[in-house]
Amino acid sequence: GKRAFVAGVADDGGFGFAIAKALAEAGASVCVGTWPPALGIFTTILRRGKLDESLVMSDGTKMEFERIYALDAEFDTFEDVPQEVRENKRYKEHGDISIQGVVDRMKADFGEQPVDIVVHSLANGPEVKNVLLETSRKGYLGAVGVSAYSMVSMVQRFSPIMRQGGSYLSLSYMASERVIPGYGGGMSSAKAALESDTRVLAFEAGRKYGHRVNCISAGPLASRAASAIGF
Ligand code: ZID
Prior knowledge:
Layout: E1 3-7, H1 15-25, E2 29-34, H2 36-47, H3 52-55, E3 67-70, H4 83-87, H5 99-110, E4 115-120, H6 137-158, E5 162-172, H7 187-209, E6 212-217, H8 224-228
Bound molecules: isonicotinic-acetyl-nicotinamide-adenine dinucleotide (ZID).
Isonicotinic-acetyl-nicotinamide-adenine dinucleotide (ZID) binds at residues 8-10, 13-16, 35, 38, 71-74, 121-124, 146, 171, 173, 218-221, 223-226, 231.
């Protein structure tokens, strides 16, 4: 069977959860990556059965996540994680929450080439509520770092542990191509970068590893992230 890693699942309301479920329905084992600040609540609601209804698959069985890894896609390696973040109460029990940290954990848990499908379903823009005209350099680079570079880093780091013929998917938004007021803080820039990077990464990772890289420009979904910005 195939194994998928879906980064960006912290409840049952977003694209990541829906994609994880569709992959499970198709017979894949599914591991997810969850942002440390959201991980405590996610595991609690899972444990208390609050997601049980959403977890029921079409054959009546309940989807199980094979693993839930703590992941902060702002960091490529543990060396990149600042001391104050390492010591933060939401982080310290999880150790290496970087992208490479998840890669290393998956190797330890499942062996040298444990994954076929990697889904990037995460984004964050600290200044998303600011129009671009009022976005700081820090806010802009923060949005691009978490929402776009994280995909570059994931393709770099997961490819050595991804089987031949494996596949990446990320999620974009049309605000990369057209002016959509309200999608600020450099998020429109991040999605433009993500889409361009998808083409370049598909070329490079296709040649180097035989892996595919795709990006879907999604329609509207009232996820936590979208609701937070009033979309
Ligand atoms: P979600 O809240 O389910 O997922 C986002 C996840 O990212 C959450 O679990 C966060 O905890 C996680 N996250 C944030 N920061 C980090 C970090 N540093 N490290 C690790 N994880 C982190 O929301 P979602 O399902 O909306 O988002 C999933 C993907 O879909 C993102 O890339 C979105 O940009 C993308 N997307 C969503 C929508 C939407 O409607 N929900 C649209 C397009 C793309 C969209 O906004 N018309 C109007 C709006 C839209 C489309 C059409």
